[in-house]
Write a structure and sequence with these properties.
2 domains; 8-stranded antiparallel β-sheet; alpha+beta; binds 2-acetamido-2-deoxy-beta-D-glucopyranose; about 300 residues
């Protein structure tokens, strides 16, 4: 792959989560600052990403248990809630919208141990009161770093949003087998009981309906499945991208095949331009870094860089 030059991969080791994402060249100094605050990850933690559920880009989701699916919908959903305990300590909901055809996360609403948090691109409210970042109140710490807003609740919940397309929920292991929502039941077993329950397959439509929550005044209907254009299967292209020199350290840490699947869907949706797969590669890179890998810089002027026209 010409677009991934080995020389460009020599710099920038250990870049924690979103610092890899969408950095203009001028942000180099910021990376250094961020790296100084962050512990250097030396040991591999292949299981670490089990605590993380994420949604990104072209309506992709990865559950705590590692199931990937796509849900193109502008409706409001429960992403994760503690539904099986005697008391619901947290409930995290979110909604997407498309701006000029690009899906982003419009709003995240959370109940975290009784505090109501409402987050969108312009504001953060806690119990209906406006706050500016950073702040620490009601057992919640919220801050903005160079590339994401992070909200951490003492009870063992961390939410990270890049203020664009990507949202992460990280839960303490004590919540295993206690959760509901699009992020699944966190039981450590793929597919069960999200998409296979009591001996029966659960359809994505049924799953989605279960966790859809309409607001008091809105009745959102998921639009019917998007145009299923036939598109060339770009599995080789996606596989090459995610196996490139920038991601060598990710090979044994991340479920690469599922990301390749997501990338293939992205290219199909974008009519074989690579515009939408940039977010999937970014997510791959973030998850790799979080799992203890050291993804290198992969964006170039031709590939997902600021001014690339993103056609291969
Ligand atoms: C959660 O449920 C799974 C599947 O039933 C079980 O194997 C696992 O041990 C449970 N984990 C905890 C922490 O209860
Ligand atoms: C998709 O690409 C084909 C071939 O390049 C072009 O003819 C068509 O107009 C494109 N469709 C859209 C929706 O961009």
């Amino acid at each position: 792959m010409r677009i991934m030059r080995a020389a460009e991969m020599l710099l920038e080791l250990v870049i924690p989560w979103l610092t890899i994402c969408l950095l203009p060249p001028a942000a180099g100094t910021v990376i250094v600052q961020t790296m100084r605050q962050m512990p250097v990850i030396t040991e591999l933690r292949p299981t670490h990403n089990e605590k993380i559920c994420s949604t990104w880009g072209n309506h992709h989701f990865k559950t705590f248990d590692g199931d990937f699916f796509q849900l193109p919908s502008p409706c409001n959903y429960i992403l994760a809630s503690q539904c099986k305990g005697t008391y619901e300590h947290f409930n995290i909901q979110f909604q997407r919208q498309e701006i000029n055809g690009v899906p982003i996360i419009k709003r995240v609403t959370m109940r975290l141990d009784g505090a109501e948090v409402e987050l969108d691109k312009t504001s953060i409210k806690v119990n209906n009161e406006h706050f500016t970042l950073p702040f620490s109140r009601y057992g919640i710490t919220a801050e903005r770093t160079v590339s994401y807003v992070k909200i951490e609740a003492k009870l063992g919940v961390v939410i990270m949003w890049n203020e664009e397309d990507a949202l992460w929920v990280e839960l303490d292991a004590k919540f295993k087998n206690q959760t509901c929502g699009l992020c699944g039941d966190y039981n450590g077993v793929q597919v069960y009981d999200e998409f296979f329950k009591e001996g029966k397959t659960v359809s994505l439509d049924y799953f989605e309906e279960t966790w859809k929550v309409n607001g008091p005044t809105e009745d959102c209907e998921k639009s019917s499945v998007q145009d299923k254009q036939t598109c060339e299967n770009q599995i080789d292209l996606c596989s090459n991208l995610l196996s490139g020199p920038a991601f060598l350290s990710c090979n044994n840490l991340i479920d690469k095949d599922s990301f390749i699947g997501a990338c293939v869907k992205d290219i199909c949706r974008c009519n074989s331009s690579t515009t939408c797969l940039c977010s999937t590669i970014s997510e791959y890179s973030r998850q790799c870094a979080h799992a203890g890998g050291t993804p290198h810089k992969w964006k170039t002027a031709q590939m997902c860089g600021k001014n690339s026209n993103q056609n291969i």
